[in-house]
Amino acid sequence: MTYQELKSKEQTYVMNTYSRFPIALERGEGATLWDVEGKKYIDLTSGIGVNSLGYNHPEIVEALHTQAQKLTHVSNLFTTAPMIQAAETLVTATGMGKVFFANSGAEANEGAIKLARKYSYDKYGEGRSKIITLLNSFHGRTVTTLKATGQARFHNYFFPFTEGFDYAEANQIDSVKEKADESTCAVMLELIQGEGGVLPLEPSFVKAVEAFCRERDLLLIIDEVQTGIGRTGALFCFQNYGIEPDVVTMAKGLGGGVPIGAVLAGAGCCDVLTPGTHATTFGGTPLMCASANAVLSVVNDPEFLTSVREKGAYLRDQILGLGSAEIRGVRGMGLMLAVLVDPDKRAAQVNALIEKGVLVLTAGSEAIRLLPPLTIRYEEMDAAVALMKEVFV
């Protein structure tokens, strides 16, 4: 079908919950995509960070093909090898305790919220359930994770929200301390606020939050849904900050293109969730975990992670090297970058980039967000930057 034919059917049959770009994609290879009419695009979005190894990666294709011929789903009433292998890899790589598998980032964050509240209930009884997040944060689209999100524009329509959240100023430890009281059980942070504009937290602030959590026996939850699985040049971004979280959530890049999320808990709280206290029908299915194992076999390698850091530095330098007055700067970490532009010009610039054949995202008010596949080739980055030069004149 042509794009117009597909769009007509979409408008008839699909809920209008997305402002989609006028493209119908058909296939991909590496960091390059083609639409149904044959136009080629360099993809600097990777499905909003999901396609961590790009498109048609041989190890993911082989893992899915092989596992699909064995088992796709059997429920968590049984044990399966792919789930155990993925859990072992994550625990061994981080030095943490145990894993719970879910299906998305929002689900992983819900699981972390439940874990923190039960940890506190088990230890201190009722009345200690508040979780502090940061202003400008984003933690998901469920009723609970929307409330955990520190952006007022998301707090609409779906009342009543789950209560028990308060919001501190990023990089202001005194703000965190002021929000914490006897009802607080945890602090939840994105180390780089992705949807908020690709804003890395200051290391001194993160270390201060860690110390405060230890002092008050608050669980430190790190939301790595977007920053995890090699995106910032370490397997997890918290490793760049030199901290030891109690709970880490992940999703997006873990499956390399299939839906999976996970809650990784440290030794001090990994046995809090017990049979009957948390569950999900599709979590940890053999098919999804087989894909996650393929991703981890590639990403959880020091040389690969070094290559992510090197590519990120190269892409940043090439963009800044354009010398365009339209570009106010580039910030981020690894291959999670933001090109800073005039907010009034951003929409037109994004549309122009797409017209030229470069797929990008937005975040915050001034950021053109770049989340390319971690396997992007230098030739693909060069091609994207050459097209950017035609837009950022």
Notes on the structure:
By secondary structure, this protein is an alpha/beta fold. 38% of the residues lie in helices and 18% in strands. It is built from 13 helices and 17 strands. The strands form 4 sheets. The chain has a 7-stranded mixed sheet, with helices on both faces. Strands 1-2-3-15 form a 4-stranded mixed sheet. A hairpin with a 3-residue loop joins strand 16 and strand 17 (367-370). The chain is globular, with a radius of gyration of 21 Å. The two termini are 36 Å apart. The model has no long low-confidence stretch (mean pLDDT 98).
Write a short abstract of this structure:
It contains 13 helices and 17 strands. The protein has about 400 residues and is an alpha/beta fold.
Features:
18% strand, seven-stranded mixed β-sheet, 393 residues, four-stranded mixed β-sheet, 38% helix, alpha/beta, globular
